[in-house]
Amino acid sequence: MSEVTAEMIARGRFADAGAPDRRRRANRLREARERLTTSGAGSRVFDLELLRLYADGRRAAILPQLLLCFAIATMTTLWLPPMVVAVWFAVQLSAVGMAHMLAIRLLGQDRTTIRPRNWRARFVFAEGANGLGWGLFAVLMIGVADPWATTYVMVVFMLAAAVHTVVTAFVPAAVYAALTPMALGELIYMRPSSFYGPIAPMTLLALGALLCFVALARRTYASQLDSLAFQADKDLAIVELEQSKAISDEARRRAEEASLAKSRFLATMSHELRTPLNAILGFSEVMKSELFGRHAVAAYRDYSQDIHSSGEHLLMLINEILDLSRVEAGRYELREEAVLLSEIVEDCRRLLALRAGKRGVSLEEIVEPDMPRIWADERALRQIALNLLTNAIKFTPQGGGVQIKVGWTLAGGQYFAIRDNGPGIPEEEIPVIMGSFGRGSMAQKNADEGAGLGLPIVKALVELHGGVFNLRSKLREGTEVIVVLPPERVMNALSQLDPDAPEPERVVRRRRMARSAA
Fold first, then answer.
1. Dist CA 187 CA 5 (whole Å)
2. Which of 100, 223, 473, 505 could pair with 479 in a Cys bridge, judged by C-beta atoms 3.0 to 4.6 Å apart?
3. Neighbour-count burial for 95-109, b at 16+ CB within 10 Å, e otherwise
């Protein structure tokens, strides 16, 4: 069965998605399904495998059978003339040799040229000849009057029946062809009158043993069929897995090509779009500022303002897409230096204070004092803080507030958290907004501008620093985002603390700030 599996796997693999490969895979699948949809001798593949198993057993049993025949012939000379025993030995050797040669021929023949029905008939004939040889042995022993001869004949028949049952179990017709002549020879040897004589129990015992051998052969055959069906099921699964793997490889190759094409497109379009955008932004700024004189129509100034705002929005969108593409491609390089997290967050708060004031949103900042510098990319941290603060201000209603915290974590790292009291985010929408170009229902209802790239970029930049980004939100309660940077990025954390403060107080202060952030 392993050869079939190897063949199926070899033919199931394909390197391209061409029509010849699809036809080969379809043939392999049809062959495997045939094994599963047939229940025995009706399946050509199962018949072939059973015949090969029989041939393997027959070839392996040649030496034990020759030794058994030789031993029986030697013992039989105690009751029969040597010439008669020699003739029987030659007949039996011929039958065994014929079955052995047929088995060798089958194993050496190409699978595609084997006709199971013809070979089954040949094996049945060969096993019938073997059975006739043992039946002839019983007929030759009829005239022996020694009481021990009867026991001897019965032992010989049991040994011969056991050997033939084991060898021919995979071909049920061969089992019957071998055991039927043995049973007839045994009945002839015992004679009909013996059924009422003292040896009747032995006769019934011998016939019962033959029936047990038949039942054992049937059971072995059924077990082998189940094993072949299981093997065929495994072969089919392997072929389908190979197909799925090949399809997956092909899809991955196409995805890599598409990703490369996207990177090339973005690299090209970055230059192609930024060049005219710079002109649009520059000239629209001149027009809205009326540097060369006032507009004859006041609406032109408003149009210039709209053009400038739209250009800035488009430039921001291009920058976000490029940043996300670089991060996904693993080409975003951190320019690390010693920076103060509290100063970066404070700068971002000042930049957005005017926007928050226009929307009627108050900003509250809580920063733990004397925090040391961290080793990080200042531009990336500013982008993280600006994105998160902008989102908090954008989705906080008028009269609401945004709270900013900067402090220590229990592990010795640093964090900053931003919490608003806005409408919140439904729990089922959090995975959506964390994906690229994902926007929540609140953003769509409010028609807020944005492409849904801010949070994915923030998460990616935090993970590039080895940190953790958490977002927690509840409807009608607000949203809280926490950026945690690992202790490995904190520089000289202990030296920046108050040297006069006792150690327990510093530990308690860290834990208090960490709990307030949680």
1. 47
2. 473
3. bbebbbebbeebeee
Residue 169: which residues within 8 A CB-CB, separation 6 or more?
A: 175, 216, 217, 220, 221, 224
Element (H, E) at 441: helix 441-446
For residues 44 and 53, give the distance between their C-alpha atoms in angstroms, rounded to a whole number: 14
Residues 21, 243 contacting (CB under 8 angstroms): no
What distance in Å separates the CA atoms of residue 104 and residue 108, rounded to the nearest whole number?
6
Q: Quick: pLDDT tens for 174-207.
A: 888 888 888 888 778 876 444 444 556 766 777 7
Report whether 235 contacts 4 (CB < 8 A): yes
N-to-C CA span, the chain:
62
413: number of Cβ within 10 Å: 20
CA distance 183 to 181: 5
pLDDT tens for each residue of 240-259: 888 888 899 899 889 888 87
pLDDT above 90: residue 145:
no
Q: Which two tokens stand for residue 299?
A: 């609406």
Nearest to 171 by CA among 125, 133, 211: 125
Q: How many CB atoms lie within 10 A of CB 457?
A: 22
CB contact at 8 A, 133 and 84: no
CA distances from 297 to 302, 303, 310, 434 (A): 10, 11, 21, 45
Q: At what angle do helices 82-108 and 44-60 cross, to 10 degrees?
A: 140
DSSP 8-class letter at 414: E
Strand 401-408 and strand 478-485: pairing? unpaired
Q: Which tokens is 282 given? A: 């520059």
Inter-residue contact 165 to 179 (CB < 8 Å): yes
Query: With left for phi above 0 and alpha for psi between -120 and 50, is residue 282 left, alpha or beta?
Result: alpha
Residues 6+ away with beta carbon under 8 Å from 243: 12, 25
User: Dihedral through CA 326, CA 473, CA 508, CA 381, nearest 10?
Assistant: 20
DSSP state of 295: -
Give the angle subtended at the CA of 296 by the CAs of 292 and 299, to the nearest 5°.
Answer: 105
User: What does pTM read for this prediction?
Assistant: 0.45
Instruction: Work out whether strand 478-485 and strand 414-420 pair parallel, antiparallel, or are unpaired.
Output: antiparallel
Cα-Cα-Cα-Cα torsion 45, 47, 51, 57, nearest 10 degrees, comes to 90
Which residues are CB-contacts of 358 (< 8 A; sequence separation ≥ 6)? none
Helices vs. strands in the chain: H and E counts, helices first: 16, 7
